[in-house]
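The instructor's notes for this session suggest beginning with a concrete chain rather than abstract definitions. Hand out the sequence below and ask the class to guess, before any prediction is shown, which regions might be ordered.
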Amino acid sequence: MNRITQCLHGKGTISSMMAGSDKKEIRQEYLAYSPVIRPVIFWNLTGRCNLSCMHCYNSSGSDQESYTELTTDEAHSFIDDCAGLNVPVILFSGGEPLLRSDLFELATHAKEKRIKTALSTNGTLITQEIAEKIRESGIGYVGISLDGATSKTHDRFRNCQGAFDPAIRAFSYCKDAKIRCGVRVTLTKANYHELKDLIDLSLTIGACRFCLYWLVPSGRGTGSYVNQQLSASEVFSALDLLYEYASKTDPSVIEFLTVDGPQDAIHLLSLMEQKNSPDLPDARSLIASMKGGCSAGIRVASVTQHGDVYPCQFAQIPECHVGSIRTRKFSELWNDQDNPVLKRFRNKKEMLKGRCASCSYLDLCGGGCRVRAFFQKKDFSDDDPFCFIKD
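After discussion, reveal the predicted structure:
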């Protein structure tokens, strides 16, 4: 995770984050840089969804069954186990998590166990009443997916005509309910041309966060990955635009960040150097504290609607299956030092080869995304094909 705004506005040190707070707890938005290794859980509560997005990593849709999903009792037990492990955040995702009738019951239970929660949604099912329930259940942040600044582009991504307007209204409902709400966008060749307009729209609707995801070959995203992935020049242009907005925008208004491209931090530091940013030393320190970019299997874990555990939400393939919480507690799986999948992700720098192994930026980037590397040549040790860094 590349936190552009934090690095550009004098918040680039762990000490500045911790100032005036309990030293044992780092605020939710800074967890990626925490020295405490506790996973943020991306929990796909359901595979059911009222949309059928072209890039969905979980291949969710209306054709998914509910009877194989974790029961409410199983979900409660999982939350209890997470509490015992001191998991800091559970992000409810899907599918569309609002289709789970027990969502607010589970969120309330997590709150009682002192676990922070967030919601990842397409926004179309949020009404004023639902927004109030979100707030009452203790969910502290809602990320709503917007994949275009126009209904034409967004609806094409979502494979549903009429998905754009209710998603936009959801921001208003969340704002009225005093819920922090941000934009999540997956940038591809199909919406790259609308990035500036999408940022402007996010500012207009009051989003407090603009989170840009790069396309990862997972789920339905594998079908369009080769033709829709951006080129190096397009990635640079997108990063330059985010830098420009983050530089001139009050950080209390909106935060800009990118996900799924650990190498983004290298470009960010280069831009800060070119601009003679006074925050460059602190930014370097902050990025270095992540010890290699990608948090999969270290500070991030993914649990599916069936209880299967993976290093991250994009690694839901047989080769990355850690285990099942239906047969073994998550805490036991997570702390199993001999688990071959977790060992591979936690020690990924040791197994790298090719350009990644010899790259001078390896300590900052950590070798990029291993899911993309595996997709390219069926080899977890191979180069990340998305990398735009030149020798």
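Then share the key points. The chain is about 40% helix and 15% strand. The radius of gyration is 20 Å.
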